[in-house]
Write a structure and sequence with these properties.
The protein is an alpha+beta fold. Helices cover 42% and strands 11% of the residues. It is built from four helices and four strands. The termini are far apart. Residues 1-28 are annotated as: Disordered.
Amino acid sequence: MALKCEAKKKDGGHCQNSAGHGTDHVGTGRCRFHDRGAKAKNKNAQKHGMYARVFSDTDIQEALELQGNLKYELAITRSQLINLLKAQKENNQQGLVLEEISERTIAHENSENAVKESQPFERKRIFKRLDFTNEFCRLVSLITKLEIAILDMQLKQLAIDELKRRKEPKQGQNDLDHMTDRELDEKIMELFS
């Protein structure tokens, strides 16, 4: 008797294909329909680009190199603002740009209840200048936030440096300013004894 796949199907029955049917392990195991899924390290469903869930080592290294570099981000944002202003200047020189054409027609009914449209009787063309205001405001706001973040980081670094400087004992002086009351009492008792 030939071995069967015997995998349980949705309807409750068992698969009647021969064991290993359509696979590289004919005669043993399950058929290709009920095998245990894709082989290890299969990248058939891997997403690429910005949709990726698994990042390569080079992607991670690039992200780590850019981490914490707000001055670089600020330079990119300023260059985007310059490009936006150039595009706005070109747009103002070119004049209006066709944005939309809307047409109205009259519908006629045939005897078969099918609707036929006539030739357009009204055609409206709408011309507008491109609006750069929202993008301009967004970029200026981003530049402001980045500059504030850079200043905030510098202030925090100064505070950290000040704390480190205070904790270091001054050379050639007793560190009486930083002693607790108990330590001061012990120091006085040493001097009198």
